[in-house]
Here is the input.
Amino acid sequence: MTNVADAMRAAALAVATLIPIVNPLGSAPIFLSMSADLPTGARRRLPRQVAWNSFLLLAAAMLVGSHILEWFGISVPIVRVGGGLLVVATGWRLLNANDVAVRATPGVADAWDREAARRAFYPLTFPLTVGPGSISTAIALGAGISSRPNASVVDVVTALCGVAIVAVSVSVSYRFAGRLVTLLGDTGAAVFLRLTAFILLCVGVGMMWGGLSELLHGLLTSPRSA
Here is the structure.
């Protein structure tokens, strides 16, 4: 019973830690605006593809993220600065995007499928859904599991189950984002999308500032060489 309770706590910890950072509901309107020009079929497949990509990215960060960063000599603050730049660029582009979506014609269906597959990872999975904040959090979760003296494969599997629950929430939120925008109407949707784009821009600035603050703090507190 104790092992089952510990496993459930590991899964719940992964969900409770990652859901507020991934924020599927908050990212859903932005996802909709970045896929509005795609045909209906491609747009309906995107939530599943983004959710699968998000699961793979978070699982990889949890399992081997700390080892990869150590191998390349990259610290988590540097990841936050670089990812923050990407988020800022995405938010700025959305903030200045045109409201009119380009509709596809049947003759270019294959081209739209390729375009949807390209967008499924960048920018819809990274950095929109899984950004530097959630990646660094997944790395911290993985490091916490590996540091336990009695850690087992069960702990890793249950943590991955928590990541899978987060990915499912991404798929559901993105799948029904259109209904939210429909309820808002054309004017309300345009205002809401601009506001969420501005919030995304501010989140990117916050990520950059957090990473820079940690780098500057480490620089200022490091012992001076004689």
